[in-house]
Write a structure and sequence with these properties.
By secondary structure, this protein is mainly α. The chain has three helices and three strands. The protein folds into two domains: 64 residues, Helix Hairpins (Orthogonal Bundle), CATH 1.10.287; 68 residues, Roll (Chitinase A, domain 3).
Length: 138
């Protein structure tokens, strides 16, 4: 994981532990005021949201405990943290991607996992070299 990825996890954890928990507690408190909890859909929805929130908090903590921060690849060789421009010879389209750890990947934002088919094909290349990429969708 990159230092940037770890910082993102920390920020999300802090937000969930503070703002998230406060919002859920307020929802539960408000729903309780509406009466009988057995048939109170708002109360049950708030409790379910609380369970999801706590599960996410535990997941983030586990990820942070097992995280290894790696140095970004520098120089001419494509690796973790590299930004690459890719020309699709078939369509003529050009796109820019950044290679990141799997859990930091957001393909729609140009953040491609180093372990995804495209990331794996690009890893280790130098500028100007050609990669053949086989993706699940062709």
């Amino acid at each position: 994981m990159t230092a940037e990825g770890l910082a993102t996890l920390r920020a999300e954890l802090e937000r969930l532990e503070t703002v998230g928990r406060t919002e859920i507690a307020d929802q539960i408190r408000t729903a309780r005021e509406w009466g009988d909890l057995k048939e109170n859909a708002e109360y049950h929805a708030a409790k379910e949201a609380q369970a999801h929130l706590e599960t996410r908090i535990l997941s983030l903590r586990a990820q942070m405990l097992s995280a290894r921060v790696v140095e970004l690849t520098e120089g001419d060789i494509v690796g973790l943290g590299s930004t690459v421009e890719v020309d699709d010879e078939g369509s003529g389209r050009r796109a820019t991607y950044r290679l990141v750890a799997a859990h930091d990947a957001v393909p729609a934002e140009g953040l491609i996992s180093l372990h995804a088919p495209m990331g794996a094909a690009l890893r280790g290349l130098r500028a100007g070299e050609v990669a053949v990429v086989r993706t699940p969708r062709g």
